[in-house]
Structure formats: structure tokens, C-alpha cells
């Protein structure tokens, strides 16, 4: 990557910039979400890493220190990982994941992540497998609840498989 990439924590001035960037591509990511993340970061329950290329917001990833997914009991979870389309295929997502995993490795030998199942998640699915994430073996979840065999669910952002990776 030839451009200057900076990975840094979320700052108080970032939420409006982030929301505007996602509004411009018609993704529903309101400023209030990032303000909540800022509060959670200040409280120590979530860390948010921002990627900027030549000073321009390019993407982010969060680490939730206590996962809402009960089987992760004590395993921090990477959540809400997004790189703006115009910055993709430039190593920014990998740099964000490297930084998130390094952050988690300071406190935990294992990291978790959930991945959606429809085609928009295909790149992420492949990336996580290449990075060494493996399914946790509990099957399909909807709203973090296990889906029983034969039951139908809506394939949306709440339909996921959970993965883990050994960091050390």
C-alpha cells in the first residue's frame, strides 16, 4: 500500500465523519452508534480502531471485551468490521484485523468473531478462514440463539456462524 495508513483509537471528533462516510454510500450507520461506541470505549467495554488513509476515514473495527454470545464466556469478540468500498483491496482490512488481534492478544489467548452468511459477507468469510479462524461448532445462530435443525430463519445480518482463533 503506497498511501499513508494510520490505525488509531476512535476519537471524539470521529462519529460525524464516520456517519457521513456511510451515508454517502447509503449504509445505515448513524452517528449515534459511534457516539455509543465512544462511550463504551471510555468505559473500557469496547475498543474501536479507526483506519485513515492520508487522513481520510477508510474503515473501522471494534473489539467487545465481553461478548454477548454466551458460549464465548470470557473470549473477546471482534465486531462491526467495515472498510469503505473505495478503500478495499488495499490491505486496510488486514491491517485493522492485525491491530484488533494484537489488542486482544494482550488480554486473551483466543478471539472470537461472528460472520454473516449471505453473499455480501463472502469476502469476510474467506478472509477469516485465511487468518486461521475456525467455526466454533455450534452451528447457525439467529440473534445469537442457536437455530434448531429444520427451523427456517431470515438470512439477514443477524444470521451468523461464530468463529474463534488461537492467538497465542
Helix content: 25-40%
Number of extended strands: 9
Query: How many DSSP H or I helices?
Result: 4
CATH topology name, in short, is Aminopeptidase
Task: Give an overview of the whole structure.
The longest helix has 14 residues, at 92-105. The chain has a single domain, classed as Aminopeptidase (3-Layer(aba) Sandwich). The mean pLDDT is 95. Helix 1 packs antiparallel against helix 2. Strand 4 (77-83), helix 3 and strand 5 (110-116) form a beta-alpha-beta unit. It has helices spanning 14-24, 31-43, 92-105, 122-130, and strands at 5-9, 46-53, 56-64, 77-83, 110-116, 134-135, 141-142, 145-146, 159-166. With 168 residues, the protein is of the alpha+beta class. The chain has 4 helices and 9 strands, in the order βααβββαβαββββ.
Provide a compact summary of the structure.
By secondary structure, the protein is α+β, with helices and mostly antiparallel strands.
Tags for this entry?
9 strands; Aminopeptidase; 4 helices; alpha+beta; 9-stranded mixed β-sheet; globular; 168 residues
Explain the layout of strands and helices.
Elements: E1 5-9, H1 14-24, H2 31-43, E2 46-53, E3 56-64, E4 77-83, H3 92-105, E5 110-116, H4 122-130, E6 134-135, E7 141-142, E8 145-146, E9 159-166
Parallel strand pairs: 4-5
Antiparallel strand pairs: 1-2, 2-3, 3-4, 5-9, 6-9, 7-8, 7-9
Amino acid at each position: 500500500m503506497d498511501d499513508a495508513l494510520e490505525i488509531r483509537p476512535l476519537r471524539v471528533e470521529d462519529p460525524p465523519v464516520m456517519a457521513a462516510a456511510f451515508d454517502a454510500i447509503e449504509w445505515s450507520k448513524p452517528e449515534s452508534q459511534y457516539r455509543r461506541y465512544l462511550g463504551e470505549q471510555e468505559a473500557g467495554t469496547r475498543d474501536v480502531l479507526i483506519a485513515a488513509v492520508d487522513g481520510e476515514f477508510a474503515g473501522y473495527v471494534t473489539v467487545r471485551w465481553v461478548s454477548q454470545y454466551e458460549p464465548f464466556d470470557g473470549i473477546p469478540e471482534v465486531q462491526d468490521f467495515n472498510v469503505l468500498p473505495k478503500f478495499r483491496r488495499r490491505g486496510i482490512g488486514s491491517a485493522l484485523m492485525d491491530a484488533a488481534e494484537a489488542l486482544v492478544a494482550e488480554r486473551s489467548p483466543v478471539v472470537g468473531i461472528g460472520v454473516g452468511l449471505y453473499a455480501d459477507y463472502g469476502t469476510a468469510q474467506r478472509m477469516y478462514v485465511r487468518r486461521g479462524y475456525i467455526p466454533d461448532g455450534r452451528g447457525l445462530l439467529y440473534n445469537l440463539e442457536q437455530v434448531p435443525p429444520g427451523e427456517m430463519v431470515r438470512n439477514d445480518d443477524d444470521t451468523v456462524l461464530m468463529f474463534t482463533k488461537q492467538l497465542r
